[in-house]
Amino acid sequence: MPDLLLELFSEEIPARMQAKAADDLRRMVTDRLVAEGLVYEGAKAFATPRRLALTVHGIPARQRDLKEERKGPKIGAPDAAVQGFLKATGLASLDEAKIQRDPKKGDFYIALIEKPGHATLDVLADILPVMVRTFPWPKSMRWGERSARPGALQWVRPLHAITATFGLETEEPDVVKFTIDGIEAGQTTYGHRFMAPGAMRVRRFEDYEAKLLDSKVVLDRERRKDVILAEAKTLAQAQNFELVEDPVLLDEVAGLVEWPVALMGSFDKEFLSIPDEVIRATIRNNQKCFVVSDPKAGKLTNKFILTANIEASDGGKAIVAGNERVIRARLSDAKFFYETDLKTKLEDRLPKFEQIVFHEKLGTQGERIARIERLAAEIAPLVGADVQKTKRAAHLAKADLLTEVVGEFPELQGLMGKYYALAQGEDASVAAASEEHYKPQGPADRVPTDPVSVAVALADKIDTLVGFWAIDEKPTGSKDPYALRRGALGVIRLITENALRLSLLKIASSAIEGMLETGTKQALVDTHKIPADLLLFFADRLKVQLREQGARHDLVDAVFALGDQDDLLMVVRRVEALGKFLDTDDGKNLLAGTKRASNILSIEEKKDKRSFDGVPDAALYGLGEEKALAKAIDLAKTEAGSAVADEDFATAMSALAKLRPAVDAFFDKVKVNDDDAKVRENRLKLLNEIRSATRAVADFSKIQD
Questions:
Q1: Where are the domains of the chain?
Q2: pTM score, two decimals?
Q3: What is the pLDDT of residue 562?
Q4: Architecture field, domain 577-702
Q5: Is there a contact between 84 and 47 (Cβ–Cβ < 8 Å)?
Q6: Which residues have C-beta within 8 Å of that of residue 657, sequence separation ≥ 6?
Q7: Is the peptide bond before 440 cis (omega within 30 degrees of 0)?
Q8: CA–CA distance, 648 with 659 (Å, rounded to integer)
Q9: Helix%, strand%, coil% for the chain, nearest 5
């Protein structure tokens, strides 16, 4: 079947827009093809700094003919109904309609409508101009003389040419004929802006890609990335150095060039006195260059690697020299910022926070730091951290936000605080907390293990969560402007991965007390509800995390349903043990029996408008199965309760498993709703005992079958 080749050739397309633009191009064209009944075999889109391209292969040469029967009015219907039927179906008269016999409802007219399919080439000529004109660029422009005319094309940068061909691989393709703003679609494209700028005629995708490569254009972004990475590594290794890989920068640089050429430059060794991260940020952010490390020294060397878009006649000397000049100036600035920062102690910067508002309803940054310091000191003994070191760490943790380097490179916040703290002689744990209290910032980020860092990180995140809960700024739907979901997941990971035993309710309550002490009382909602509401939020976030790890979210509900389950580590351990238990035959059958008992109880409680709490009367046991179940329940309660108290949930599950034979036998032999009202009530109380026994570890009614 035929293939489509489409290229939109323009001026420079910003690198940050290219990936989405390629995906939008593929989606818009293929969605419309499917809507037109043209189901294709495959599609792939490409983007370079100067072109968007798309190949769609295996498209039918034309739409299928459609035949449709449309039911009309009954024979003898009013003339208005007949005329409406004729108009809707395009029939000239009822002579062109068929009659459908229906002995029960009466005979009626049927119109057989045949709609011949159109050639795909014509369909493409209709849909492609619309797609080009409605392309969803985040920013676009008009240009040239035509820009003043109504309906002038708006595009990310001036559009110069459109290539659009359609045809079989073995034949000369047809051009999809359409014109936009004076630009006529054809078979002409252009090579590299400097090395092969001439026009060339292309036929289909394979021919197009090959001719571009001959004209110094690597069409595939992934291939450009591979070239850059391989050449950069080779340059570094040739001098016994190592490239510091940077996937984000690599992706960006691949969007800046069509013919990548890696070159190595250098800078003065005096700049190596700056922390490596500052050097990297300076070179990366300003010149989009990679840095190089010396594996023997264990730090950066005075080399960098740039990616040019041309094979220069001088081997790239002028390009390298130009980059070296700019990098030298940028590093000079960075060195000045760093050395200036070192002249002022971190604590001497803190008074400025009293004039900086954190949030209009939550006070200043200074007040927030005081809250974090107070809360961290309370958390410290719970996580094995030194209280004085923790207070000092919390006191200084935000100070680097007011430094010159962080002002220039915000992504280095925390890290620079660590360097400055070490430079002024702070304890290593205090210094580390400046960097680590922001962690973890995502599912792949490292979780701190130093107790001081853990205490400050928990205090920072919980203060934020409690604060925004207190002013009723909770996440809603997809909106989470203060990243509170990420903060909650950070708390969960800090607790579970460090195996910490903490009461979130108590810590949240303490955070509220600290907030009230800072004078934000008038802005707060009902503070009594906040800890419980937050616990539900943590439960939801924990479900998300456990689900991503393969656990069942309903098991989290079953554990949280017991109430006051604010020890997340124990929740996770209960969920793990419960999951393993329910994977066994004993677990599955006990769950079925427990649910059966709960269902019967729910029905009878609703019918009698009462609950069946209380201890069953042993004197009313008339059957051996009743006595055996009562005995099994007493034993399971004792053993499971003791195991739960020892936090041995596996043993607790084993104890509950002993209930299974007695529960099965009870339901096989015993009629719960006995004719004797007292016996019935006693048996329902016995069922309630089953429910009560299993609640030692979880609420089984919350578990899905």
A1: 3-61+120-214, 69-115, 221-342, 357-550, 577-702
A2: 0.81
A3: 81
A4: Orthogonal Bundle (1.10)
A5: no
A6: 581, 584, 586, 587, 590
A7: yes
A8: 18
A9: 55, 15, 30
